[in-house]
Design goal:
Elements lengths: L2 H18 L8 H6 L77 E4 L3 E4 L8 E5 L4 E7 L5 E5 L8 E5 L5 E4 L32 E7 L3 E3 L4 E8 L3 E6 L2 E4 L4 E5 L5 E9 L2 E12 L6 E4 H4 L4 E4 L4 E3 L10 E6 L11 E6 L7 E7 L9 E8 L6 E8 L7 E9 L6 E6 L8 E8 L8 E9 L1
Parallel strand pairs: 9-15
Antiparallel strand pairs: 1-4, 1-7, 2-3, 4-5, 5-6, 8-10, 10-13, 11-12, 11-14, 14-15, 16-27, 17-18, 17-21, 19-20, 20-27, 21-26, 22-25, 22-27, 23-24, 23-26
Length: 456
């Protein structure tokens, strides 16, 4: 029930009461005569408790119309590709053929040339190239090439140098070469420029004094007992002389001489003609060496060296005499070609074949140092045979070893030869080779080394 309905009920109730009282507040007579007055019990209404103020709910906002997602269409079931089968076309089997037996390639012998006379070494193949040194009679050098006209040999120069090169005449009256069939043709370097001649009026010829182009030595300081070579070249002289130790010797140009002075010596070259005299001098200082240390005695170490022939293709056993393959052995107190009898020598017999050879590789207990020297004498036993070259080289393997010396000798000349090599050019090497090359089959019997050693 709301508040308005309550008031209406109260007003209706009062009207009824007033009507019953007769309008003036008294009960009507009918009511007093005929109807006893009822007793009214007034029951009071409970205290009105008003309803709480109505709070309307917020305006309803409907949710947006639901739009269902499209029906999921499943992916088709994966059907794998069929397995790929590789068909291989059969290859007919090759009919086996017999493998030919490989023919071994012969090892080429070392190309060498020996000077038959004292030869000029020039920078190119021709007399128009400047002279850079000399190859003396009997000296041997390694050949590295030939000129296009085959009149000159290119050689390793100075001997033993890993890169130095020079040229000498290949004419048979001046030099003799072996194993040179396969040496390459080497194009010559450009010749030196030729001075341009400007013609002038021809004056009356006048004789000029001689001209000495050069006067030099391969060394200017030597130890007592060592050798030195002097070289010279001059022109326009009627005569020329070399003066030393109070004597005078006639010379021709170009020329050279090898000497072993006992003391410091002044050498004077004199050239003269009717117009005058020209003089050049040089001094060779001779010193007395102090005691030297033997780094390696090759004679004592020979049994432990690696001995081979056929350019390393055949290994030899020390002390076993093999006249075909070659051998290395000690000879005790033998008679040599010059009549001497050393206590012990090392005989190295080459292989009995054309250009037969034998070589021994010595391992050094310490590397070669700058200033070390190899010294030995070489020659033949009395009754030895043939012409040979005694070779000294350095390097780990024989085919690429650096040749330091190749000394030609003949069994019939009755002379021992001295080898004295400065090893500075192969410093740090741990291997030294000594060997013998024969000029003809069977040659070299009795070829010996006397006291071979490395000194420091």
């Amino acid at each position: 029930m709301n508040r308005t309905s309550g008031w209406r009920w109260i007003v209706s109730f009062l009207i009824i009461v007033i009507g019953l009282l007769g309008g003036d507040g008294r009960m009507s007579a009918l009511a007093q005569v005929t109807t006893p007055s009822p007793t009214f019990t007034v029951t009071s209404y409970p205290t009105y408790t008003p309803y709480p103020t109505y709070t309307p709910y917020p305006t309803y906002t409907p949710y947006p119309t639901y739009t269902p997602y499209p029906t999921n269409t499943p992916y088709p079931t994966y059907t794998p590709y069929p397995t790929y089968t590789v068909y291989v076309t059969p290859t007919p089997s090759a009919t086996p053929t017999a493998t030919p037996t490989a023919t071994p390639t012969p090892t080429l012998a070392l190309p060498l040339v020996t000077a038959l006379v004292d030869l000029n070494v020039r920078s190119g193949p021709g007399v128009e190239y400047p002279r850079i040194g000399a190859l003396l009679k009997g000296e041997t050098a390694q050949v590295t090439g030939r000129s296009p006209d085959a009149l000159w040999w290119q050689i390793v120069y100075p001997i033993g140098s890993p890169e130095g090169r020079g040229w000498i005449s290949a004419r048979p009256q001046y030099s003799s070469a072996i194993n040179v069939e396969n040496v390459p043709v080497v194009l010559p370097p450009p010749p030196p420029p030729t001075a341009t001649f400007t013609p002038t009026s021809t004056p009356t010829p006048q004789l000029e004094p001689p001209v000495i182009f050069s006067f030099w030595a391969d060394r200017y300081v030597i130890n007592r007992g060592e050798k030195v070579t002097l070289y010279w070249d001059l022109a326009n002289a009627e005569a020329a002389y070399l003066r030393y130790d109070g004597k005078e010797k006639g010379v021709v140009a170009p020329g050279s001489i090898t000497l072993s002075p006992e003391k410091t010596t002044v050498y004077t070259l004199r050239a003269y003609n009717a117009a005058g005299e020209t003089i050049r001098q040089l001094i060779i200082t001779v010193v007395t060496p102090g005691p030297s240390e033997t780094v390696l005695d090759l004679l004592a170490a020979a049994p432990s060296a690696l001995w081979t022939s056929n350019l390393g293709g055949t290994v030899l056993i020390w002390g076993v005499l093999d006249e075909v393959a070659g051998y290395a052995i000690w000879r005790e107190n033998p008679e040599l070609e010059d009549g001497s009898r050393p206590a012990r020598v090392l005989e190295t017999r080459p292989r009995a074949a054309p250009n037969g050879d034998i070589a021994g590789q010595f391992w050094l207990p310490q590397p070669i140092r700058t200033g070390d020297r190899f010294r030995a004498q070489v020659g033949f036993l009395a009754g030895g045979l043939g012409n040979v070259r005694f070779v000294v080289a350095a390097g780990n393997a024989l085919p690429n070893a650096t040749i330091l010396a190749a000394v030609a000798d003949s069994a019939g000349d009755g002379t021992l030869r001295t080898i004295d090599i400065d090893l500075s050019g192969v410093a740090d090497s741990n291997f030294l080779w000594i060997g013998v090359l024969a000029d003809e089959p069977g040659g070299g019997k009795g070829a010996v080394w006397i006291n071979p050693r490395i000194e420091r």
